[in-house]
Backbone:
């Protein structure tokens, strides 16, 4: 659920709702499109078709400083560039906003060079001061630290010697390139906003990526238009429309009828059912994240004060470790996920092999062992009552709450396995399913015992690991930094700082694996599995779509904008309905999209949630 971003300055719940306030639906009069003059129809026909993508997850906010849910981050990646991007071919560093960069010998100073002719989508020049303003805004304003605060923490100073050069001086040597992952915003827009943390950023947006948000609303989704000044050339499509659907079944039907063009988050059954369907191509690839069950270790805010209402029995690491030992992750992968994906170990998935903790499931320190879990609890003094439920040290039955996403079928399936497993070790579990946004809010505030979560990540693990440091705990009101599991360990922090400055790649990789082992040993995040990504698109409407990585990757939810940017219409004639599957014809006129059907307009479906990832 959470990334994003995962993945992964956190606003209060009330503010977050305000950030998604309706901006109004895009509407066109029927007479101005279907009944227009021949000349108007001819003009519309010259417009390239919009790529319609199923929106199945919550959009927490379109403010790049605050966005952590993966759906929002995917939109952000189309709109804002970092200085250094992850290449489409193999996830290696490649030019983004900067065309080249270098560091000194001990990686305490990084210099980035911007091209002199680059422009924002509104035609204003992209200059080094844009980078300086972005970094300093996060450093100076705690409310802007939520999404990317840890990315700028080690930057002691940032300056612009000239309009095309940025120099970052670090507090300590930094192995990870500080130019990756941080979205840069235009100073000439954001510096005029009195409250950047309260800015919805949901219409007429100025960006540097291939697309920018033109309009958005809760009911109609998000509409993006091509950036005419994008450095790699304007996109061949007419834009991207993120169309809300209640669930993936509804989106699959829309894909079949041609109402949408692309979707991700397919279940195994849906993926298999779409294979061989005329006009549709399926895509599967290794995922860049994990799915897990988080266990509340005794959430605290940044000042070390208790946060939320987690069960105090979980403060005991033995109880948390026994819970992990009582969960059969391999059975979940085989039964719930039908054998797809790979067994979970640490936070870094196998797609990034250098940093992945590669160990067989039965060799894990807390490998599935019901008898062993019972012995741990017996030896720790948690005796069973007459009904078989163990009692905590105050004599109360151990009853825990499991929270998940109501729109996720897998969450309920896993819960059905989990309840009897927990009962077998004397723990009573009740489940509550909420929307993804509610799960995000409740978990941030520590109002849970266990909950389903997951994060996606980029090729360098530094940011993901930083989410486990003590500094990543939120403020008492939920604002501030973003934490993976609201866990704090001085020993972890010390090793994190060491790997952060380690310039020997092999030594650093070993430290990252050790960091994951520390998280595992603390039993605050049980990584169940690394899922494969199942996606599909209308290949009778769009072609030449770039995967990431090129050979084994996916077309959506990438570490960059490549898939949607590269999508090329099979026919640029948006008015002929070619390849639409017969379900709907999309006319593009005046920058707005309208669905025409036999009975009139098709209303865009109201959004719910299915995502369980944040970044």
Residues:
């Amino acid at each position: 659920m959470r990334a994003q971003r995962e993945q992964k300055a956190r606003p209060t719940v009330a503010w977050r709702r305000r950030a998604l306030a309706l901006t109004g639906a895009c509407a066109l009069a029927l007479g101005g499109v279907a009944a227009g003059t021949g000349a108007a129809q001819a003009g519309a026909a010259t417009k390239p078709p919009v790529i319609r993508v199923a929106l199945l997850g919550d959009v927490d906010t379109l403010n790049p400083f605050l966005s952590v849910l993966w759906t929002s981050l995917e939109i952000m990646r189309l709109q804002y560039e970092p200085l250094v991007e992850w290449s489409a071919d193999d996830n290696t560093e490649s030019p983004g906003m900067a065309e080249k960069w270098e560091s000194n010998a001990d990686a305490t100073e990084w210099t980035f060079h911007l091209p002199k002719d680059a422009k924002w989508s509104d035609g204003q020049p992209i200059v080094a001061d844009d980078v300086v303003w972005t970094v300093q805004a996060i450093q100076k304003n705690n409310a802007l630290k939520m999404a990317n605060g840890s990315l700028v923490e080690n930057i002691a100073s940032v300056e612009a010697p000239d309009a095309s050069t940025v120099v970052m001086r670090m507090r300590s040597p930094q192995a990870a390139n500080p130019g990756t992952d941080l979205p840069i915003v235009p100073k000439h827009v954001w510096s005029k906003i009195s409250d950047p943390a309260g800015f919805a950023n949901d219409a007429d947006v100025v960006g540097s990526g291939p697309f920018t948000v033109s309009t958005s609303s809760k009911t109609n989704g998000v509409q993006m238009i091509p950036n005419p000044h994008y450095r790699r050339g304007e996109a061949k499509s007419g834009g991207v429309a993120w169309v809300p659907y209640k669930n993936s079944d509804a989106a699959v039907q829309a894909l079949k009828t041609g109402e949408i063009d692309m979707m991700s988050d397919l279940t195994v059954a849906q993926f298999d059912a779409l294979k061989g369907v005329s006009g549709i191509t399926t895509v599967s690839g290794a995922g860049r994240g994990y799915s897990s069950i988080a266990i509340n270790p005794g959430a605290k805010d940044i000042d070390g004060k208790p946060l939320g209402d987690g069960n105090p029995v979980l403060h005991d690491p033995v109880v948390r470790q026994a819970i992990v030992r009582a969960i059969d992750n391999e059975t979940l992968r085989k039964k719930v996920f039908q054998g797809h994906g790979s067994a979970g170990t640490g936070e870094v998935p196998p797609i990034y092999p250098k940093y992945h903790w590669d160990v067989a499931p039965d060799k894990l320190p807390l490998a599935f062992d019901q008898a062993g879990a019972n012995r741990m609890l017996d030896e720790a003094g948690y005796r069973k009552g007459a009904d078989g439920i163990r009692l905590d040290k105050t004599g109360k039955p151990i009853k825990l709450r499991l929270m998940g996403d109501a729109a996720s079928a897998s969450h309920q399936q896993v819960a059905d396995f989990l309840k009897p497993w927990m009962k077998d070790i004397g723990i009573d579990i009740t489940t509550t399913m909420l929307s993804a946004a509610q799960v995000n809010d409740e978990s941030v505030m520590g109002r849970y015992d266990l909950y389903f979560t997951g994060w996606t990540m980029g090729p360098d693990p530094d940011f993901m690991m930083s989410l486990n440091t003590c500094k990543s705990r939120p403020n008492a009101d939920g604002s501030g930094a973003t934490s993976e599991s609201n866990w704090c360990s001085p020993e972890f922090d010390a090793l994190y700082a060491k790997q952060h400055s380690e310039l020997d790649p092999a030594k650093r990789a070993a430290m990252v694996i050790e960091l994951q082992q520390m998280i595992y040993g603390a039993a605050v995040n049980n990584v169940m599995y690394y899922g494969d990504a199942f996606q599909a698109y209308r290949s009778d409407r769009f072609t030449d779509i770039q995967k990431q990585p090129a050979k084994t990757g996916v077309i959506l939810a990438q570490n960059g904008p490549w898939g949607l940017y590269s999508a090329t219409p099979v026919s640029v004639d948006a008015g002929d309905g070619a390849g639409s599957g017969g379900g709907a014809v999309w006319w593009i006129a005046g920058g707005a999209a309208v669905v025409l059907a036999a009975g009139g307009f098709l209303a865009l479906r109201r959004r719910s949630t299915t995502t369980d990832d944040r970044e």
Summary: The longest helix spans residues 505-522. The two ends are 9 Å apart (CA to CA).
